[in-house]
Amino acid sequence: MLRDITFGQYFQGNSKVHRLDPRTKLLLLILIIVFIFLTQNMISFLIATVFTACAVIISKVPLRLYLKNLKAILPIIIFTAIINVFYGNEGKVLFSIFRLTVNTGGVYRAVFMALRILLLIVLSSVLTYTTTPNDLTDAIEILLSPLKFIGLKNAVHTLAMMMTIALRFIPTLVEETEKIMNAQKARGADLENGKLTERIKALVPILIPLLISAVRRAYELAEAMECRCYNGGEGRQRMKKLQFTLLDVIAGFVSFLFCGLIILFNVVI
Fold first, then answer.
1. Is the pLDDT of residue 110 over 90?
2. Helices 63-85 and 104-130 sit at what angle, rounded to 10 degrees?
3. Per-residue pLDDT at 6
4. H or E element: which one contains 120?
5. Please, which residues have CB within 8 angstroms of residue 193's CB and are 6 or more apart in sequence?
6. Mean pLDDT of the chain, nearest integer
7. For residue 27, what pLDDT band results from cuts at 50, 70 and 90?
8. Which residues contact 129 (CB under 8 A, 6 or more apart)?
9. In sequence order, what are the beta bridge partners of 96?
């Protein structure tokens, strides 16, 4: 299961999505996710699904990577759907469990919420698969640069660096967790069977070594940055300048067209 988590990894390629400016990808991702959660009917949601499928195809990233990501997050999606089933108060009553009633409105809400999360994960994966951590850092720092005018000059670069390092070390921590779990299993630890309390207790020998390993990696990373004379964003220059191109304009136009269609079908239907 842990090997299926590929979020945060960069897949090298030369697709049109890869060539987009990282600022464009980040802004459009936020915009599209907002409008995906504004979908109110099947037609507008179908448009969102088609848009997401086109983004996946154009990115030229193997489909198996997206499927592995969805497989890893599937328990959370199912849990979210089950919770939302009991929130709907409209439609025909299907059945009741104790004092909880399930009706068609709740099922409709649960399905929509699960599918929205699926699209959110896929679109976020498109960003991380097609954008290097360095480009993502530069994009976040530039987009947050207006905060420098309110006295947060150093905080902007620090925040961008923290977010990028967090994304960069997701695959590393997943790999480290899997190694620790295999080591504990080799020592006779049972991590998959038993009561819930027993399985929670079995996680302690995993979490403690993982925490120690993460702290050690953070300390080593800090030392490496100090050895390279890193002192924050003050006076730093970028080797690669970010520039908008015609491709970014086209991507923005298509994305705004998608948002317009969502609004149109939400109003008409």
1. no
2. 150
3. 59
4. helix 104-130
5. 199
6. 81
7. very high
8. 9, 10, 11, 59, 61, 65
9. 101
Q: Is 90 exceeded by the pLDDT of residue 24? A: yes
Residues 49, 36: Cα–Cα separation, whole Å: 9
Threshold 0.85, pTM exceeds: no
User: Any idea what DSSP says for residue 93?
Assistant: E
Residue spans of the domains in the chain: they are: 1-131+240-269, 154-236
Q: pLDDT band for position 88 (50/70/90)?
A: low
Question: Can you read off the two tokens belonging to residue 265?
Answer: 């079908």
Q: Collapsing DSSP states into helix, strand and coil, what is residue 97?
A: strand
256 vs 57: CA distance, rounded Å: 19
pLDDT tens digits, one per residue of 235-269: 666 667 788 889 999 999 999 999 888 888 887 76
DSSP H stretches of helix in 131-269: 133-143, 153-186, 196-202, 204-227, 246-268
- What are the residues facing 97 on neighbouring strands? 100
State both tokens at 62.
Answer: 């193997």
Rounded CA separation 194/112 (Å): 34
Is residue 117 predicted with pLDDT exceeding 80?
yes
244 φ, ψ (degrees, to nearest 5): -80, 145
Residues facing residue 95 across a β-bridge: 102
What letter represents residue 122's amino acid? V
Bridge-partner residues for 102, per DSSP? 95
Short-list 182, 172, 184, CA closest to 213? 172
